[in-house]
# Entry
Amino acid sequence: QVRLVESGGGWVQPGESLTLSCATSGFTFHWYWIAWVRQAPGKGLEWVSTTTGTEETYLDSVKGRFTISRDNAKNTVFLQMNSLEPDDTAEYFCVKMGSHYEYEIWGQGTRVSVSF
# Structure
């Protein structure tokens, strides 16, 4: 059974940092792209970042502040988030992408709140 479990969310003040983790199981981790997608309160889903294993891509508004990485030995993906802004407040989801690059399996999400 494929599982993705996010952790590391919380409340921080603007300018502070958080690192999200996504622990996965049930599939050959290094074969697949993994994405982080977020949903701000009252808004739609927004892609944040993807790791292919050889390349990382980012939403323009997080470039230079967020870093995605993966540990293939631990089947885990991380999202290091620095200089957090109130607009980063959202539920963050880790997503396994399928063989046609679709969002295939979602984690349960972890909430990030950025405010004074």
User: Anything to note?
Assistant: The radius of gyration is 13 Å. The first strand starts at residue 3 and ends at 7. The mean pLDDT is 97.
